[in-house]
Amino acid sequence: MTMRSVVLGTGHYLPKKCMTNADLESLVETNDEWIVERTGIRQRHIAGEGETTSMLAIEAAKRALADATIDASSIDLIILATATPDHTFPSTATQVQAALGITGGAAFDIHAVCSGFVYALTTADNFLKSGSAQRALVIGAETFSRILDWTDRTTCVLFGDGAGAVILDAQKGAGTNADRGVLCTHLRSDGRHLDKLYVDGGPSTTMTTGHLRMEGKEVFRHAVINLAETVDESLHRAGIAASDVQWFVPHQANRRIIDATAKKLGIDPSRVVVTVDVHGNTSAASIPLALSVARHDGRIKQGDLVLIEAMGGGFTWGSALIRW
After folding, report:
1. What distance in Å separates the CA atoms of residue 298 and residue 6, rounded to the nearest whole number?
2. What is the pLDDT of residues 180-206, one digit of tens each?
3. Is the pTM above the cut of 0.70?
4. Which domains does the chain have, with CATH numbers?
5. Which of these, 60, 241, 284, 313, could form a disulfide with 165 (CB 3.0-4.6 Å)?
6. H/E run at residue 129
7. 279 is catalytic
8. Which of 12, 21, 111, 114 is catalytic?
9. CA 186 to chain CA mean position, Å
10. 281 catalytic per annotation
11. Catalytic site residue 186?
């Protein structure tokens, strides 16, 4: 028998404020046609004044708990992926823990930018498989609007705010690909590419938050190559063909990256979950947001094989195969 991390429920939350491409025209020199052609994005949600990353995460967590029909007290591990925490410390995960009334177990953040949820899911999976925890709440939550330079049209049009969460439960499986749960994960990083995607501030350098900076063409080039590589590795490890995957749920960075990666992998567009058009790039929140949307609109069903992947600043990247 093999221990598997089985998904019990999902939840997501988006700030009420919605910013369309037309709204951006009053802030920066851009237009809807330019944004849609290059990114596929038509709108994004922006956190309101005083609305924090932990607030978004808490709402997504509550919805995931309700979907799983379990009590928060049964959670003994919380891992929250974010690049925009409430505070330098303590971790935003501990704020979620307190808000949910959980006093046992462990709670901590993971910082791998857009790959954060894949890293968090992988970490939680290893905790559950080893017996170190029984039930995990894994969250991706971001308020990227707080670190954008709203005069830079190459970056401010891309990002949005939001949160998504999944509940994982350690259950026994037969050790085959037919098991429900996380079947395999694959993580990579290469720190030589800091200057391609980064924030120009931090406690140890400038003592400021800073703003996001990106070389879009270079990120695109690395993304398609790296994401295809990590997906191939996960499929190979699991002994599964891309044609066996029911749903491909990529990081929602840019529609062109999503389409190019799916094409390179030979995955039919009808099996790709896309939310970037209405959410923008929500960094670590994008995959759990898309998973929750596709789960609640009926696309993802129990037994479906789901492939997720992401690449973020660092560079970091990774993928995972999940039998729903």
Report:
1. 18
2. 999 999 999 999 999 999 999 999 999
3. yes
4. 2-173 (3.40.47.10), 181-323 (3.40.47.10)
5. 60
6. helix 116-130
7. no
8. 114
9. 15
10. yes
11. no
